[in-house]
Amino acid sequence: MRAAATIWLCVLAAPAVQAAGFGPPEGTLPIHPLPVTVPAGALSPLRSSALFREESSTGAAPTYYLGAGVAGSRLQIPDSPGATAWQVVPTAACARLEPVPPALLRTPAVQAVVVQQNPLPMECAAAFEGGCTSRDGKLRITTAFEGRRRAARVGGGFFGTEGTIDTTFYTGVRTLSIEHLPSRLALRMQERLNNSNGYSAPQTAIRYLPELQRLLLLGASEAQGMPMAHCVALPPG
Question: Which is nearest to 107 in space by CA: 59, 43, 61, 55?
């Protein structure tokens, strides 16, 4: 599954339509490319990844990791074939992803960030429209749509033969905005929909690391159909 998942109401008998995906971010927040080189046959953190953290014994900021296909120490199951692990290393500009052995994420000191601990509530960037605030109150994420809506009844079920259901087709622009509330700086990404009832929901592709003052966009946007990675260095405060 892609990190910036496409939400489908069902698989329809109606003509196939696809969400276009969000375009590259732009705005007043400092946005930096986040290079990711994935070995052949390995899983990419831009398609789907989990967040892990290791607490410091000295009171310093925790160390964050990303795992693609890594089960972690909580689950007594093997990693997926091609699993990869990456340490998020802060830099003067923003951050870099440094490959580490996936086994590191299975050690007791490194724990997966569960839903209740995630700095961003799970509803962030999940719905077609709506908004949320980070648990520390510093980030506001909103999704808004401008355009036309067309209600329709379409065939339901995998082959479109299981009765009919109500759905809505959209033509217009969805804008996902992320604002750093203390500074009022923000970025935005736009998704153009053309008679589509599918849309992108990149909630697990947006990783907020408050102790590092970093925001990672891991496949939340696309360019020519390929997922992109960006790092945002958040201002102090």
Answer: 55
Report DSSP letters for 88-116, one per residue: EEE-SSSEEEEEE-GGGGGSTTEEE--GG
Distance, CA of 41 to CA of 119 (rounded, Å): 31
Length of the chain: 237
How far is 196 from 157, CA to CA, in rounded Å?
18
Total domains in the fold of the chain: 1
| Position 110, amino acid | V
First to last CA, the chain: 35
Q: Which residues of 41-80 are buried (b: 16+ CB within 10 A; e: fewer)?
A: ebbbbbbbbbbbbbeeeeeeebbbbbbbbbbbeeeeeebe
Tens digit of pLDDT for each residue in 39-68?
A: 899 999 998 899 999 999 888 999 999 999
Domain range enclosing 178: 5-233
Q: Is the alpha carbon torsion for 116, 118, 121, 123 positive or negative? A: negative
Positions in the chain whose pLDDT score sits under 50: 1-3, 6-17
211 φ, ψ (degrees, to nearest 5)? -65, -25
